[in-house]
Amino acid sequence: MASSPTGEPPRSELTFRFRGAKRTLDTFSPRATLLDWLREEEGAKGTKEGCAEGDCGACTVVLSRWRDGRLTYEPVNSCILLLGQIDGAELLTIEDLAEGEALHPVQQAMVDLHGSQCGFCTPGIVMSLFAHYHGGAAATRASVNEALAGNLCRCTGYRPIVDAALETIDGAPKDRFALAADARAAAIRIMDDGRDLFVGDESAFFAAPASESELAALYAKHPDATLVGGATDVGLWITKRFRDMKKIIWLGRVVGLDAISEKGGSLRLGAGVTLAGATERLARIHPDLGDLMSRFGSMQVRVSGTVGGNIANGSPIGDLPPALIALGARVELRRGEASRELALEDFFLAYGKQDRAPGEYVRALLIPAPGPGQAYRAFKVSKRFDEDISAVMAAFRFDLEGRQIKSARIAYGGMAATPKRAPGAETAIGGASLDDPRTWQGARQALAKDFSPLTDMRASAAYRSEVAANLITRALTEIADADVPTRIGDLRAAE
Amino acid sequence: MPPNRKVEIPVVPLENETAVVHKAHPHDSAGQHVRGGAPYLDDLREPSGTLHLGVGMADKAAGVLRALDLATVRAAPGVVAVLTPSDIPGRNDIAPAFKDEPLFAEKEILFHGQPLFAVVATTREAARRAAVLAKIDIEGARPTITVADALVTGARVLPDYEFGRGDIEASLASAPHRLNGKFQIGGQEHFYLEGQASLAIPGEGREMHLHVSTQDPTEAQHIVARILGVPDAFVTVETRRMGGGFGGKESQACQWAAMAALGARVTGRPCKIRLDRDDDFVMTGKRHDFRADWRVGYDDSGRVKVYDVALNARCGCSVDLSLGVVDRAMFHASNAYWLEDVRILSRRLKTNTVSNTAYRGFGGPQGMIAIERVMDAIARERGIDPLDVRKANFYRHGGNLTPYNQTVEDIETLPAIVAELEASSDYRARRAAAAAFNAKSPILKKGISLTPVMFGISFTLIHLNQAGALVHVYSDGSIHLNHGGTEMGQGLFTKVAQVVAEEFGVPLDFVRITATHTGKVPNASPTAASSGSDINGMAAKIAAGQIRERMVAHAAEVWGLSPDKIELREGRAFGGNDSMSFGELAKKCRENRIQLSSAGYYKTPEISWDRAAVKGRPFFYYAFGACCAEVAIDTLTGEMKVLGADILHDVGSSLNPALDLGQVEGAFVQGMGWVTTEELVFDDQGRLTTHAPATYKIPVASDVPERFRTALHLRPNPTESIYRSKAVGEPPFMHGIAVYCAILDAIHAVKPGGQPILEAPCTPESILNAVRSLG
To answer: Is B372 a catalytic residue?
Structure first.
């Protein structure tokens, strides 16, 4: 491997903090998961495996990192997180929380309020709440629900768990981790050596380049390597599909790849920006984007998964592509020293196939905000509100002139083999009036020509078609008349 | 509810009369749960040399296995052995009773994912990777998948069974009003967070000791012995705790125990199996899905004159527990209602799908939701509030004989609960508010419902209503407690320990709870049918009572008093002006050769059931409750949100109100999941396509309604149960039915008077279809 721009040879051992001390590992399988390492190598059995696919949260552990000038506590699914991804972090597991006999406040509240029954999900729940405890704000019912969206409990019905969180999380953490924050932060920051990481040999390795130039060079040299953003999808290739990935390039240490900036009037999100990290900026573009991001997987998925990963893996059901295609987003790609830019919808060629050459990677997304006279809506429809995959995802940007629609960008997920625009509907909606739902019919009907969706376990083709059309109605109803209730999430029980 | 209001644990009125029972003790393992210190099966330290199993599965749902080429499997890295039917020393049969399901398929393929062989390897990963390498040649046949398919083929796992009374056709013909309909009632995956797991450790000779994550160690023992071809006495099974059971680790745990034991027998080394989540979904049984076909005749006020229902149950590929499950669906097909003329018919359909099994409620929910659907249909047609129709039909004087001929003696408790909940939930005002909202909201609609639950307590297989316990007092006064019940999170161990502590007059921490073990308490019944604390609590009380009597007699002798002057309380013995610690007394007993160990045995009195004659008293008593649910639906997408749930549930004089509250709340949320997001989808090849949490959606925290108010009805059980408490595991599950009925109510708001077809679970697609079915 080439040496890094600093001239130093790459670091050949993983470095992290665990149980209050620095640890290094120079020999491990590139596809080893953090959970297997904890349970099988370290004998730390407190962290549980419930599903091995990042959907139940029983394996939740916390990674403490130094980000944006502060110490963060990120809950992650250790079952699908690659061991190498903990480089530079402090790993905190359920065994770390109590101090001798004294339970952590979150643990004590879980006992006092009867928050555990079978107890199998409990370590993961405690770790998610521990991360929330250190999140910097007092808990609300909504914040706790959000923190727990990735933690399944089959016994309690969650009520006592939520109460335990509300009782303990006041935004002012006072546990021993908070008290030792400065020392811990210093110990974490000192591990950030800015060097490339390369563990293994040319035939099998876990690499984490520190710069884009090194990433470009390494990937050009090993186009058969697997690029990993958060591993929230790649992890399953390992645990469920037994894929023999021998070369892994993790993007989490590439300086600058997680930058958020403005470029030509657009928001530029580096491919390495996590879904959690993108949420606030996207919400500023439109509240629907913020809502969408908060329903994206779970907290564990959002702190790990990246916007680049959500685009690059080309899933027909990824939620971000349709939402951004409707805004006219573009994608930046790089291969070696060459960069190019294309419209996001053109990146998706066919099922599982993207316009990405061997050795080329997604570098950034460029997202223009809706301008004056433009109305934007994005809707996700799934069986379960939180932590579910869309049956249908729809996004709209209408260009309005008074009460008339001049033109539109309409994009759907879940309706075809790729995220896709609806050219027929876009054409048909031109000239329609917000005040006359009959003029929306053409666009609704045109969808039948735009899409031939599939029937699968999430929904039938007929349902998808009907809902796709109805979401045009919902979008235009909202834009036409703000007083008609359309958001079920806003409703409360009658008192 | 203000967001930060802490829910107070209710106080049992009798709590001053007892020292330990009726009190809100935390779960005995809570302190370990929260620190990751409570070991589940896969957390136990493995004996050295432990091997791991992976399972090879059928890739077709039906047909004949022509050839199985395992050469590449055997050659894979780390593989030590491959287990096939020819390795089984005993009988290739894991069925609870009917000899209709093998450990490994030999010829006929019963379902997609059926185990064909198992790999034993040095690591779990090696075993799983090797297991997918077999060359499987199955001559496929057209599979029978759905209820509708099975009604066409006519295949049954057991004969049809019906009971009832009256001339149904004549009664229907003469009824002032008639309705009929049919609807699907979905199944449910248990989704215990800890998947199936077993560890088998070979002993000397042909002995085998197992740790099994099971609700039924005795059944696991029997099946392991059967597979190994050894007497039961050669096999011991131990279970400290499960990470959830819900019925899914009753019969369904045995196969994996047997597989691990077979591996241990063949290799002579300890063998562990822990199923991957996806494999667990595919290979283990679920709640039965049903189609209910119903006809009803009723009068102007909505009182039912005649009810005729066919409960078509998808049992899957074998009987498993379907005899009892579908019988219980029939027992609860009347729920809380007097049905003058009635016919309840059940069909136990055989399909090429995994064999359905026990799941919390054991068929009861499916029978109950059908008649609740019918109550709503009557109310719509009559234009009467559905709650008033329900009330008009409750069991009453002169109308308190169930369709299975048990007389309902307690006809007061349920109406009292419903009246109290109607007031406390503000049902009428909220119904009016929902109507007002709906009048102004063309797209979103609200619905509300208040439904009752009446659930019979006892195993309907009468011989299971027995339990044993083993109690030792050591000479320092510490107490070792063992009984046949298993701990799966419900708090059974805590409740039984409370009973024992109460008996000895000692603090709860004197009692050491120990793992369920077939070598300590034999011939135990499964921990199921909500019976755990009722029967094991009684057995433990009897065991402790016997020791207590001896200890009291000895104290009386020491102090020269009569035994009735001796009191055990607060960890001490008192007599006259003397007292000594419980430990001192225990020490004296040992020194004076007083037996400090006892086995207790209990069998539920007064119950009987003659299935052929439809006679007897299958239920010792009934547990009651009611739930008021409020929902909103989106008529453009079918999306739904549960806005509120108010529950009042009868737990008698609760043994532990904190644990009971947890059971009620948790059961409601699980029942809500059953009728809403939890959809099992089999494709036309019989493959389960929702086999992981990515595709099968159980409720998460945000699905729980913001208004969620649970109260316990705490009157003493009129029947002589343990401390007059009531069983609580299953009954509150059926409060989820209120959510189904509230969704129905919201759909009705789209077109009042219509009769929508609403299939359960009420996914967005199901709700949108129901809206469309209104025309």
So the answer is: no
